[in-house]
Write a structure and sequence with these properties.
The chain has 10 helices and 10 strands. It is an alpha/beta fold. The longest helix has 14 residues.
């Protein structure tokens, strides 16, 4: 049985008077890939952003329930420290308007790290972990905007990895990429789970079967089913899960 890094209990989320998540109870295993799937608007991304308190930035958002990260209540943590431990990669690659090198070390410099040797070491290590170093090693001082879409996304992953997180959240990280770039990201995810826990939102069920160890199926703000990915897709326990997998609704 895998050790859990997140333990979520009785999680409810409201945007003003609108309830977006209903009584979610879920434990996320450490050093595995957990995919969040379900129809558009079902609460996947909303749930994902609860895990590093990105929803704190949304006006009139209220959360009830408990989220533990390594047995520590994240609602009592400094959000900056939390987001260091729980990095995030978004749907659209979002490099900063600066060099490749400065993008990777940006978070470290914001935290006051000034040791140039250390910054260089972490930059190289992070780019290697993101499978990007060989492609950019001769142009680290060039603008990140010159990179292709897939390279920009791997740069964003390197930027998150530079903070040495425990968890990497990914919100549809390949939806804006072509098949070749998507394949590279998927290969990267399979490598990264040796060191990091990954939670990924995806609309692509085939992608979930390729890269995830566990699958959580959401519908209308509720967690319908959570299981080992192979078992979830071969023997879904809930009718709603089976209907979604077989295309009876979208």
């Amino acid at each position: 049985m895998s050790e859990n890094i997140f333990d979520i209990s009785n999680l409810n989320l409201f945007y003003g008077t609108h309830q977006a998540l209903f009584d979610v109870n879920l434990s996320i295993p450490k050093n595995e890939v957990t995919a969040l799937i379900g129809p558009s608007g079902c609460g996947k991304s909303t749930f994902l952003k609860c895990l590093n308190r990105m929803n704190d930035l949304v006006e009139d958002c209220k959360i009830d329930g408990q989220i533990l990260l390594n047995d520590e209540n994240i609602m009592k943590m400094n959000p900056i420290i939390l987001r260091t431990k729980v990095g995030m990669v978004f749907q659209q690659p979002n490099p900063f308007p600066m060099s490749i090198y400065e993008n990777v070390i940006y978070g470290l410099k914001c935290q006051g790290v000034k040791d140039k040797k250390l910054l260089n070491e972490i930059c190289i290590k992070s780019l290697k972990e993101a499978a990007l170093f060989e492609e950019v090693k001769d142009k680290l001082k060039s603008s990140a905007y010159q990179l292709s879409g897939g390279q920009k996304q791997r740069l964003c992953i390197a930027r998150a990895l530079a903070m040495r997180p425990d968890v990497l959240l990914m919100d549809e990280p390949t939806s804006a990429l072509d098949p070749i770039a998507t394949s590279k990201i998927e290969e990267l995810i399979n490598t990264l789970k040796e060191k990091y826990t990954i939670v990924i939102v995806t609309h692509n069920m085939q992608q979930a079967t390729r890269i995830s160890d566990n699958t959580a199926f959401f519908m209308l703000g509720r967690l319908v089913e959570f299981n080992n990915t192979e078992e979830f897709f071969s023997k879904p326990k809930e009718k709603e899960s089976n209907d979604y997998i077989t295309g009876r609704f979208s």
